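Lab notebook, bench 4. We co-purified these components, and the gel suggests they stay together. Before we commit to crystallization screens, I want a quick structural picture of the whole thing.
Request: model the full complex, all chains together.
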Amino acid sequence: MEVRYINNNNWQNFLLNQIEKYNIFSLFEQGDADYNYAMLSSENLKDTVLGKYRSIVPIKSFFFPSSEKILPFNKKKPQIIIGVKACELAHLRLLDAMFLGGEYKDPVYEEARKNTVLISADCSSAKDCCFCSIIEGAPYPTYGFDINLRPVKNGFVAEILTDAGKALVENNDSFFQSAVDDHLAETEKNRVNVNELVIKINKDFNFAKALDEAVKPPETDLWKEVAKECVECGGCRFACSTCYCFLIGEQKNFEKFRLWDACQFKGYARVAGGGNPRPSKPLRYRNLYSCKINYRRQNFGFYACTGCGRCIDVCPAEIDIRKVLTKLSETK
Amino acid sequence: MRLFKNFLLTPVENGWKMKNIYQSIKSEVLKITDESSNIKTITVKPSEKFSFVTGQFIELSLDGIGEAPFTPSSSPYQTETIDVTIMKAGYVTEKIHQLKKGALVGIRGPYGKGYPIEEMFNKEILILGGGVGMAPLRSFLLTLIKQIDKFKKIILCYGAKSPDDIIYKSEFEKWKKIKKLNILRSVDKCPAGVWKEDIGVVTCLLDKAKFDLKNAVSIVCGPPIMMKFGTRKLLELGFLPEKIYLSMEKNMSCGLGKCGHCQLGPYFVCKDGPVFTYDKIKDFEELWD
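Here is the predicted assembly.
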């Protein structure tokens, strides 16, 4: 993998050069402690940041928006997404497996995915809800990006992984310099520090047992306990980028659209005539956790939870997946 | 290397054009047959070539109204038209029941895995059907009849609520004449003297059916409660779980293994089923609901 260095000033110029050719989505501060994506323009360019950690909006929105036409569907202008974090690349790994794997490829997702260049970044801090390091992840990207940026003093080390990333750098070669060993040493130190921070944040949670076994979560009163708090808003499912479920709607002329759907809604699995495999909240909860830590791992070899913590952030009932998994580990 | 890079080649780049997987084939309704008070068979003619393996299902759509999964009830050897037998059970099926001859519907598919017919060669086939569950079984039975020499024996046990609720009434008369096919029927209830065959739930018929357990497979399709007790009875009779083929009904919406609605454990009924052997799915608590 090729590694280069780019200073802050050149980075701005590099971005400015791409605005014509691409729709660029980059992070901006939102409130005191959050980030969100916005379309980059020459006006807001100076305010964009790489983000210390992941944004509020789930990465799936770029490839699988909350509602979209799927038959027919529109081609997209090529886009660059900047500031994607490791947990989100893990989300995309799952979405790729769902939408592009198997006998059929979802053409709408595929179109968006192939028109996108992903420029990811190391996390330089963590939120209280972050837990990637304790669910087979890490706060820095190791796969799935085109270019990854590791922040260093006055600039970034750029790791170039794919042909798409390479082409982008080669077309703007004058902005990039050679990376030196000092740069890399600096980023390694940051990686270790943030990883330790994530572990420290999660020191009270221990669910290695529930994960290791990755077996069918047992019938336990735990699901009733959790479900009692849940108000069935579906927020956790919509904020989750490994939640791929969608509802298809019919329009005139046999056209179709789709909307995000969520397994936590009562009518989700109901069939005509009224049969419902999961009519109660505890059953739906158990299924949700089975999907995340068991079923998808059986299908693809990895968990459908990447530790981004968005479900914890959005839950009005303060249900915390780490607490649930910890309790689950204890019930066995 | 970008993840799953090979997936990102588009068909257009490969020099051929593929249809959107969500696109239906427009099909004309040629015939509507009333089977019972709430079940109709519609015969449609797809505007493009369409074939399926018995047991696979299709998504049938009504323009601007909705889409729902059905297993064709016609023989896969009948290639010009497809029969779909539909019970009025919800919004879309109610609208389907209002269709008139000449109407246009959409069909896409076929989806999932059908019955593994070749694995059943030289065996005794015990078919257990209830109510509208006879629809996929009709397709299955017609497939067997077409090559009946390849099977040792076929036993069809079919149950309906009442004599009026029995579907394919005229076809049963034809089927009864087939030598290697033994038909047993029951109705749940019936006024005295009207019905000369068995009265009771369909599982009672299994006690009367004569088959060689060592060389038999069973095929079950019907309402969930009937499938549950039917499977239980077959197990009691000594059938191994891997010899019981179940045609599962879940909320198959996309049919492609993408949308999630028909999830059953790690499986998606639409792509891993709808036909499962019982051993694969017996541990899922939500199996019969």
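The radius of gyration of chain B is 20 Å. Worth comparing against the SEC data before the next meeting. Chain B has a mean pLDDT of 93.
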